[in-house]
Amino acid sequence: MTSHRKGVSDVDIGMLWYDDSRKPLHRKVSEAVQYYKTKYGLQPTECHVRPVTAGQNPPLTVGSVAVIPNQRVLRDHFWIGVPERQLADG
Description:
Layout: E1 14-18, H1 25-40, E2 46-49, H2 51-54, E3 61-62, E4 65-69, E5 77-81, H3 84-89
Parallel strand pairs: 2-4
Antiparallel strand pairs: 1-5, 2-5, 3-4
């Protein structure tokens, strides 16, 4: 996994997931990952989330998925997918 500049996404094509429940962040991300894997047949590697949604001291990863704070993502939304550079590498 390469390092990321705060608030910048390399995921050009992904899935936008909405969850405003009171579940912990790791569970929300896990559920989004499972849905993504079922729907697209791929393992996502990144999940971008608005810092206020992530809360203080969010996990850096959930399973093998990097959790990346990103101001461009709407509150209670999760931008999940695989960066295009990883898809190109096969």
